[in-house]
């Protein structure tokens, strides 16, 4: 009986560890068993021999996803560094979570080309829930509720840090080391669990590194 309890505890610990990643998942991005790419071709930037520092997703029509396969995410924290560009309507970069498939997910993303444009700063960070709640639908039916400005304001052409805190039904988005979220909304999906992936929007490329996920 003692052996069984010990083994059960060890198994539980291993399962818990498998669901919480404290190391950068980007390093496994070339592993086709761990990552699946949809509507994008990835390029990998090596920092040291054999160690991937950054994923670059190319620009194509439609949305693109790089989905990590070895984790089912419900509540917790997703941290990562990302880089877009200051080119109007050509830079939509962020993270998707609760991914059911490549068209059904929650996501938050940034529009770097709006970061320093006073007339558009309120459209800098956005929540969406596909396929039903696109940004067009949310902006039309719930203006200014699911997109906000970002504080502090990053350089739109450089890497910046984002932290996404998910605790159903709330998602909060923090930029750099801010203590106050730039965006805080109640999610609109009926699904509450799924995979995590890097996301780029229509016609957009993007770069990502330092992806760490912690489940609650």
Tell me about the biggest sheet?
A: 7 strands, antiparallel
How many whole angstroms does the radius of gyration measure?
18 Å
User: In whole angstroms, how far apart are the ends?
Assistant: 30 Å
Overall form = globular
Counting helices, strands and paired strands, the structural category is mainly beta
Determine the fraction of residues in helical runs and give it as a percent range: 10-25%
**Helical region count?**
2
Name the poorly predicted regions. 1-18
Number of DSSP E strands:
14
Strand order of the largest sheet: 1-4-13-6-7-8-9
The overall average pLDDT, rounded, is 91
- Strand fraction equals 35-45%
Order of helices and strands: HEEEEEEEEHEEEEEE
Give the helices and strands, then pairings:
Blueprint: H1 2-18, E1 35-38, E2 42-48, E3 51-57, E4 64-73, E5 76-83, E6 93-101, E7 104-110, E8 125-130, H2 135-141, E9 147-148, E10 160-167, E11 170-175, E12 183-186, E13 194-200, E14 206-215
Antiparallel strand pairs: 1-4, 2-3, 3-14, 4-13, 5-10, 5-14, 6-7, 6-13, 7-8, 8-9, 10-11, 11-12
Explain what you see:
The chain is mostly beta strands. It is built from 2 helices and 14 strands. It has helices at 2-18, 135-141; strands at 35-38, 42-48, 51-57, 64-73, 76-83, 93-101, 104-110, 125-130, 147-148, 160-167, 170-175, 183-186, 194-200, 206-215. Strand 11 and strand 12 form a beta hairpin. It is globular and about 45 Å long.
């Amino acid at each position: 009986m003692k052996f069984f309890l010990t083994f059960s505890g060890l198994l539980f610990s291993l399962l818990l560890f498998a669901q919480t990643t404290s190391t950068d998942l980007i390093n496994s991005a070339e592993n086709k068993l761990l990552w699946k790419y949809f509507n994008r071709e990835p390029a990998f930037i090596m920092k040291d021999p054999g160690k991937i520092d950054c994923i670059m997703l190319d620009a194509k029509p439609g949305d693109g996803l790089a989905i990590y396969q070895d984790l089912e995410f419900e509540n917790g924290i997703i941290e990562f560094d990302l880089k877009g560009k200051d080119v109007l309507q050509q830079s939509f970069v962020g993270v998707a979570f609760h991914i059911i498939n490549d068209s059904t997910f929650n996501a938050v993303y940034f529009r770097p080309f709006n970061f320093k444009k006073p007339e558009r700063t309120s459209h800098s960070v956005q929540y969406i829930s596909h396929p039903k709640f696109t940004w067009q639908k949310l902006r039309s039916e719930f203006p200014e509720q699911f997109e906000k400005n970002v504080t502090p304001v990053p350089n739109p052409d450089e890497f910046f840090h984002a932290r996404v805190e998910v605790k159903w039904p709330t998602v909060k988005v923090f930029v750099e080391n801010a203590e106050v979220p730039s965006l805080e909304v109640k999610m609109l999906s009926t699904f509450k669990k799924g995979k995590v992936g890097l996301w780029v929007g229509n016609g957009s490329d993007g770069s990502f590194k330092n992806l760490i996920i912690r489940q609650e």
